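Quick one, T. Sequence first:
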Amino acid sequence: MPTSDRRSPVEGPLLNLTVQQLAYLVAVADHETFSEAASSLGVTTSALSQGLAELERRLGLSLFERQGRRQLLREETNEVLAYAQRVVADTRDLGRWVGAAQDGGVGRVRVGMIDAAAVHHLHDEMTSFRGQHPEVDLRLVVAPSGELLDQVRRGDLDLAVIVDPEHVEGLDVSPVVTESLVVVAPAGHDIGAPSTWGPWVLFPRGSRTRQLIERALVTRGAVVDVVAESHQPDVLREMTRLGMGWSVLPDSQSGQEDGDEKVVVAERHLVLVRPSARSANPAADQFVQTLVD
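Structure tokens:
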């Protein structure tokens, strides 16, 4: 049985029209005279006339009819005019979007932060950025410094705020905030001498903050006997409250009041890290500027 030949209809060639020619047509429709239309676009009347003549040639249609000394659009060309108006409007919208993208007003920013940065130190800055750049898709990941650093190196994050790393090859590093690390004693215990401190509930072994704490405690003569670990300062503080051990926490997460006796054993520096070789992302640049400022 012969099969029917179901061929798709052949599409004609695309019209080679320019946005400028279409803008000329829209301007003429919006103004009384060619002179006024040309002035609205900042071109000469001659340039406008030549552009419209070229548009007619490419369309293969006569768009105007003469009435006295004026040339008016033919009613039968309304479809061309409607198309021109859509293209010109869409092109202007695109131009505004491109301008916003170049200024960092739109786009996506993937940010990583340790909990102290996200909750305590940079909350207001993030709120301000979101208010000033509502079209930017800001995505936040809260995790320990080591995990965030790995994600930055893999390209999963555009930037991260972490504890100052030891190895920074291939990274741009900018200081953000310095915070004190303070001793937190179990309920009912006086701070006393370092030799009386412990046992300890601390951040996990291998973390940058744990390294800073251990060095500081050893320097002060304390015995570092760790009985429990957690990445979460709230958990460590609760362990201390329950009497499981002593801890060293960022001052902002220690639960201590301003009038309490505080023993600062070390400082940690929170920094913003980005890959040195990175694709252009104006929105991320704007976010970085907000934090650094």
